[in-house]
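Posting this for the archive.
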Amino acid sequence: MGSSYHQFCPVAKAAELLDERWTLLVVRELVCGTERFNDLRRGLPRMSPTLLSRRLHRLTRAGIVERHVRDNEVRYVLTRAGHELRPMIEALAAWGVRWIGELGDDDLDPKLLLWDMHRNVDLSAVPDGRTVVEFRFPDAPPGGRDWWLVITRDEVDVCDTDPGHAVAVTVTADVRSMVGIWRGELSWPDALRAHAVEVRGPEALRRAVPRWFTLPGWASVPWPA
Protein backbone atom coordinates (compact mmCIF):
# COMPACT_ATOMS: atom_id res chain seq x y z
CA MET A 1 0.00 0.00 0.00
CA GLY A 2 1.02 3.63 -0.43
CA SER A 3 1.56 6.12 2.37
CA SER A 4 -1.20 5.96 4.94
CA TYR A 5 -3.59 8.83 5.59
CA HIS A 6 -4.27 7.28 9.01
CA GLN A 7 -8.03 7.68 8.57
CA PHE A 8 -10.76 5.08 8.89
CA CYS A 9 -12.66 6.69 5.99
CA PRO A 10 -13.03 4.14 3.15
CA VAL A 11 -12.17 6.85 0.60
CA ALA A 12 -8.86 7.38 2.36
CA LYS A 13 -8.16 3.65 2.51
CA ALA A 14 -8.90 3.21 -1.20
CA ALA A 15 -6.78 6.24 -2.06
CA GLU A 16 -3.80 4.76 -0.21
CA LEU A 17 -3.70 2.09 -2.89
CA LEU A 18 -5.00 3.86 -5.97
CA ASP A 19 -3.68 7.42 -5.85
CA GLU A 20 -0.04 6.55 -6.47
CA ARG A 21 1.25 7.81 -9.82
CA TRP A 22 0.28 5.51 -12.72
CA THR A 23 -1.74 3.08 -10.60
CA LEU A 24 -5.15 4.15 -11.91
CA LEU A 25 -3.87 4.02 -15.48
CA VAL A 26 -2.62 0.47 -14.91
CA VAL A 27 -6.11 -0.37 -13.65
CA ARG A 28 -7.58 1.36 -16.72
CA GLU A 29 -5.59 -0.91 -19.02
CA LEU A 30 -6.57 -4.01 -17.05
CA VAL A 31 -10.24 -2.97 -17.14
CA CYS A 32 -9.92 -2.58 -20.92
CA GLY A 33 -8.86 -6.23 -21.14
CA THR A 34 -5.08 -5.94 -21.39
CA GLU A 35 -3.39 -8.81 -19.55
CA ARG A 36 0.18 -9.28 -20.83
CA PHE A 37 3.06 -7.20 -19.49
CA ASN A 38 4.29 -6.02 -22.90
CA ASP A 39 0.75 -5.07 -23.92
CA LEU A 40 0.35 -3.10 -20.70
CA ARG A 41 3.53 -1.24 -21.62
CA ARG A 42 2.06 -0.36 -25.01
CA GLY A 43 -0.96 1.17 -23.33
CA LEU A 44 1.34 3.02 -20.90
CA PRO A 45 4.20 4.01 -23.21
CA ARG A 46 5.74 6.57 -20.87
CA MET A 47 5.77 4.31 -17.82
CA SER A 48 9.03 2.53 -17.07
CA PRO A 49 9.00 -1.30 -17.01
CA THR A 50 10.40 -1.25 -13.47
CA LEU A 51 7.60 0.95 -12.18
CA LEU A 52 4.98 -1.11 -14.01
CA SER A 53 6.30 -4.27 -12.36
CA ARG A 54 6.18 -2.54 -8.98
CA ARG A 55 2.60 -1.37 -9.45
CA LEU A 56 1.43 -4.80 -10.65
CA HIS A 57 3.08 -6.42 -7.64
CA ARG A 58 1.31 -3.99 -5.31
CA LEU A 59 -2.06 -4.55 -6.98
CA THR A 60 -1.52 -8.30 -6.73
CA ARG A 61 -0.71 -8.08 -3.02
CA ALA A 62 -3.83 -5.97 -2.50
CA GLY A 63 -6.04 -8.59 -4.14
CA ILE A 64 -6.94 -6.45 -7.16
CA VAL A 65 -5.00 -8.59 -9.65
CA GLU A 66 -4.04 -12.25 -9.92
CA ARG A 67 -0.86 -13.34 -11.69
CA HIS A 68 -1.49 -16.37 -13.90
CA VAL A 69 1.38 -18.36 -15.40
CA ARG A 70 0.78 -20.96 -18.11
CA ASP A 71 3.29 -22.38 -20.60
CA ASN A 72 5.79 -19.65 -19.63
CA GLU A 73 3.23 -16.95 -20.42
CA VAL A 74 2.31 -14.55 -17.63
CA ARG A 75 -1.06 -12.80 -17.55
CA TYR A 76 -2.39 -10.30 -15.06
CA VAL A 77 -6.11 -10.85 -14.50
CA LEU A 78 -8.49 -8.72 -12.47
CA THR A 79 -10.08 -10.33 -9.45
CA ARG A 80 -13.66 -9.66 -8.38
CA ALA A 81 -12.35 -6.67 -6.41
CA GLY A 82 -10.57 -5.45 -9.54
CA HIS A 83 -13.64 -5.77 -11.74
CA GLU A 84 -15.60 -3.69 -9.25
CA LEU A 85 -13.30 -0.77 -10.13
CA ARG A 86 -14.74 -0.60 -13.68
CA PRO A 87 -17.60 1.80 -12.80
CA MET A 88 -15.11 4.09 -11.07
CA ILE A 89 -12.80 4.15 -14.12
CA GLU A 90 -15.76 4.82 -16.41
CA ALA A 91 -17.03 7.59 -14.12
CA LEU A 92 -13.58 9.22 -14.02
CA ALA A 93 -13.40 9.09 -17.83
CA ALA A 94 -16.82 10.71 -18.16
CA TRP A 95 -15.92 13.39 -15.61
CA GLY A 96 -12.65 14.07 -17.44
CA VAL A 97 -14.47 14.53 -20.75
CA ARG A 98 -16.97 16.93 -19.19
CA TRP A 99 -14.79 19.05 -16.97
CA ILE A 100 -11.12 18.89 -18.01
CA GLY A 101 -10.10 21.62 -20.44
CA GLU A 102 -8.30 21.54 -23.76
CA LEU A 103 -5.51 19.02 -24.26
CA GLY A 104 -1.92 20.20 -24.35
CA ASP A 105 0.39 19.20 -27.19
CA ASP A 106 2.26 16.82 -24.88
CA ASP A 107 -1.01 14.92 -24.29
CA LEU A 108 -1.32 13.97 -27.98
CA ASP A 109 0.41 10.59 -28.14
CA PRO A 110 -0.08 8.71 -31.44
CA LYS A 111 1.25 5.51 -29.88
CA LEU A 112 -1.47 5.49 -27.22
CA LEU A 113 -4.07 6.57 -29.79
CA LEU A 114 -3.36 3.64 -32.11
CA TRP A 115 -3.21 1.23 -29.18
CA ASP A 116 -6.66 2.35 -28.05
CA MET A 117 -8.03 2.26 -31.59
CA HIS A 118 -6.75 -1.27 -32.20
CA ARG A 119 -8.85 -2.69 -29.37
CA ASN A 120 -11.98 -0.92 -30.61
CA VAL A 121 -12.10 -2.32 -34.14
CA ASP A 122 -15.48 -3.74 -35.16
CA LEU A 123 -14.26 -6.95 -36.79
CA SER A 124 -17.72 -7.63 -38.21
CA ALA A 125 -17.55 -4.39 -40.24
CA VAL A 126 -14.12 -4.96 -41.79
CA PRO A 127 -13.82 -6.90 -45.08
CA ASP A 128 -12.92 -10.57 -44.88
CA GLY A 129 -9.28 -11.55 -45.08
CA ARG A 130 -6.48 -9.22 -44.07
CA THR A 131 -7.07 -5.47 -44.11
CA VAL A 132 -4.19 -3.06 -43.50
CA VAL A 133 -4.92 0.54 -42.52
CA GLU A 134 -1.98 2.93 -42.60
CA PHE A 135 -2.07 6.05 -40.42
CA ARG A 136 0.18 9.00 -41.19
CA PHE A 137 0.67 11.84 -38.72
CA PRO A 138 2.94 14.41 -40.41
CA ASP A 139 3.04 16.62 -37.30
CA ALA A 140 4.12 13.84 -34.93
CA PRO A 141 7.72 13.56 -33.73
CA PRO A 142 10.05 11.41 -35.85
CA GLY A 143 9.47 7.75 -35.12
CA GLY A 144 5.79 8.31 -34.39
CA ARG A 145 4.52 9.48 -37.76
CA ASP A 146 3.68 6.20 -39.48
CA TRP A 147 1.54 3.40 -38.04
CA TRP A 148 -0.25 0.36 -39.41
CA LEU A 149 -3.21 -1.63 -38.14
CA VAL A 150 -3.25 -5.18 -39.51
CA ILE A 151 -6.79 -6.47 -39.15
CA THR A 152 -7.87 -10.07 -39.62
CA ARG A 153 -11.01 -11.89 -38.55
CA ASP A 154 -9.26 -13.07 -35.37
CA GLU A 155 -7.10 -10.18 -34.22
CA VAL A 156 -5.78 -6.67 -34.72
CA ASP A 157 -2.07 -5.88 -34.57
CA VAL A 158 -0.46 -2.45 -34.19
CA CYS A 159 2.79 -1.94 -36.09
CA ASP A 160 5.18 1.01 -35.99
CA THR A 161 7.17 -0.42 -38.89
CA ASP A 162 5.81 -1.39 -42.30
CA PRO A 163 4.41 -4.93 -41.94
CA GLY A 164 5.02 -5.56 -45.64
CA HIS A 165 1.38 -6.19 -46.59
CA ALA A 166 -0.68 -4.32 -49.16
CA VAL A 167 -2.35 -1.25 -47.65
CA ALA A 168 -6.12 -1.04 -48.15
CA VAL A 169 -6.55 2.58 -47.06
CA THR A 170 -4.27 5.34 -45.81
CA VAL A 171 -5.50 7.85 -43.24
CA THR A 172 -3.51 11.10 -43.02
CA ALA A 173 -4.25 13.56 -40.23
CA ASP A 174 -2.70 15.78 -37.62
CA VAL A 175 -2.64 14.02 -34.26
CA ARG A 176 -4.97 16.53 -32.60
CA SER A 177 -7.71 16.00 -35.19
CA MET A 178 -7.50 12.21 -34.91
CA VAL A 179 -7.57 12.41 -31.13
CA GLY A 180 -10.56 14.76 -31.44
CA ILE A 181 -12.41 12.14 -33.47
CA TRP A 182 -11.53 9.47 -30.93
CA ARG A 183 -12.71 11.62 -28.03
CA GLY A 184 -16.01 12.38 -29.77
CA GLU A 185 -15.21 16.08 -30.16
CA LEU A 186 -15.03 15.92 -33.96
CA SER A 187 -17.03 13.70 -36.29
CA TRP A 188 -15.49 11.84 -39.21
CA PRO A 189 -17.65 13.74 -41.76
CA ASP A 190 -16.72 17.13 -40.28
CA ALA A 191 -13.03 16.22 -40.17
CA LEU A 192 -13.10 15.08 -43.80
CA ARG A 193 -14.96 18.17 -44.98
CA ALA A 194 -12.49 20.42 -43.17
CA HIS A 195 -9.56 18.46 -44.68
CA ALA A 196 -8.28 17.79 -41.18
CA VAL A 197 -8.32 14.10 -42.13
CA GLU A 198 -7.73 12.58 -45.55
CA VAL A 199 -8.51 8.97 -46.45
CA ARG A 200 -7.00 7.46 -49.60
CA GLY A 201 -7.93 4.15 -51.17
CA PRO A 202 -10.76 2.58 -53.16
CA GLU A 203 -13.96 4.60 -52.75
CA ALA A 204 -15.94 1.81 -51.06
CA LEU A 205 -13.21 1.34 -48.45
CA ARG A 206 -12.75 5.08 -47.92
CA ARG A 207 -16.43 5.45 -47.10
CA ALA A 208 -16.41 2.40 -44.83
CA VAL A 209 -13.40 3.32 -42.66
CA PRO A 210 -15.33 5.25 -39.95
CA ARG A 211 -17.58 2.22 -39.43
CA TRP A 212 -14.59 0.00 -38.74
CA PHE A 213 -13.93 1.71 -35.42
CA THR A 214 -16.17 1.77 -32.35
CA LEU A 215 -15.54 4.90 -30.34
CA PRO A 216 -14.88 4.36 -26.61
CA GLY A 217 -17.87 4.78 -24.34
CA TRP A 218 -16.70 8.11 -22.94
CA ALA A 219 -16.67 9.64 -26.44
CA SER A 220 -20.47 9.95 -26.24
CA VAL A 221 -20.49 11.77 -22.90
CA PRO A 222 -22.31 15.12 -23.34
CA TRP A 223 -20.42 18.26 -22.47
CA PRO A 224 -21.88 20.66 -19.91
CA ALA A 225 -23.81 23.59 -21.34
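The first helix runs from residue 10 to 18. The longest strand covers residues 65-70.
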